[in-house]
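Most newcomers find our protein records easier to grasp once they have seen one. Sequence and backbone structure share a record, each on its own labelled line. To make this concrete, we reproduce a full record directly below:
***
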Amino acid sequence: MRKLCLIGVSLLALSCARTATAADLAVAAPIPVPVWSWTGLYVGSHIGEAWAFKNWESADGFFGPAGPFGAAFIPFSARGTSSGVFGGMQAGFNLQNGPLVWGIELEGATADLDGNARCALAFYVCNSRIDYMGTLTGRVGFAFDHVLLYARGGGAYAHDDYQMTANVITNAFTGSDNRFGWTLGGGVEYAFSPAWSAKLEYDYLDLGSEGTSFTDQFGNQSTISIEQQIHRVKAGVNYRFDWGAPLVARY
């Protein structure tokens, strides 16, 4: 009887020891923490304000009908500004490797940037309006978990409508063009949920100098050389698909 009691006590002590050891291991085992990843496809929208600078550099052609300009060349130098708001959508893809984030982004926006300048010896008022802008850029950034600092650069596009009205004769010239150039910019993006992020960004667009054809109501034509740059500041939000999966587990 004594031996059976000793055997029972021993088994009970061994069972308690094993339970305590398992509990200690369960408490001591580290819990993996997922590392935030910016990798994934995203879509979003943005809104902002922009300022465009235009240099009306030179003109040739007929500024009639039989007006003070005749068919002769006239000095045309003028500088004007356009300003207003814009808004649109963007889509892109990011790939994160360590703290570095690489990506590509396509963006389009409608705009309402109006402005004017005195031109052609101050006989005309040159009005301009940008109604659409777009960019296709690469992005490179440095991630601090939920915060991404990035730079972007690539191609830029804008559509302009123009009108020249005279204050000494009753004719008006109109024209429009599609302008292509390059852009550089940068910003900061913050992920405030597993799928959503918000960003603040500045961009510079240089659309170069090119000739634009103008025609008045009498059929008279002129080609005017216009140089254009755009500065813009925007805020936006992105929704990322399949976002939140960790790159690696960190302990």
